[in-house]
Amino acid sequence: MKGKDPRGYRKKGLLFSDIEFSSKGERMFVKQQVERLAEKIAEMRKARGISQEKLAELASVSISTVKFIEQHQRTPSLAVLLKIIYALDRNAVIWK
C-alpha cells in the first residue's frame, strides 16, 4: 500500500523504500543526496533562526512535511523541495 499509512491517511512525500532503483549504486547515490538536502535544509533553517513551524508556514507545507524531511523519513517532491528552498532563500541559485 504505497503512499498511505496504516490508518488510511495520505503520506506527505515518498518513503525511500517505496522508490525503485536500477542498481545498488544508484540507490546509494540518491540516498546520500536526499540526506545532504535534508541536512542543508535544517542547517539553513537554523542559521536563519526559523522554527520548523515557521518554515512550514513560509513554504505553505505542513509541519509534518518539514519534520519528516529533516528526519530523513520522507523524500520530498521536487515542487515541495523548491518551495522550501524559496522560503529559506528567495535568491537561491540551484544550478549555475
Explain the overall architecture.
The chain is mostly helical and 96 residues long. The protein contains four helices and no strands. The N and C termini lie far apart (39 Å).
In percent, how much strand structure appears in the residues?
A: under 5%
Helix-strand pattern? HHHH
- The CATH class turns out to be Mainly Alpha
The total count of strands amounts to 0
Roughly how much helix do the residues carry, as a percent range? 40-55%
Distance between the termini: 39 Å
Q: Main β-sheet: number of strands, strand sense, barrel status?
A: none
Structural class comes to mainly alpha
Shape: globular
Indicate the CATH architecture: Orthogonal Bundle
Mean pLDDT: 84
Number of helices: 4
Low-confidence stretches: none
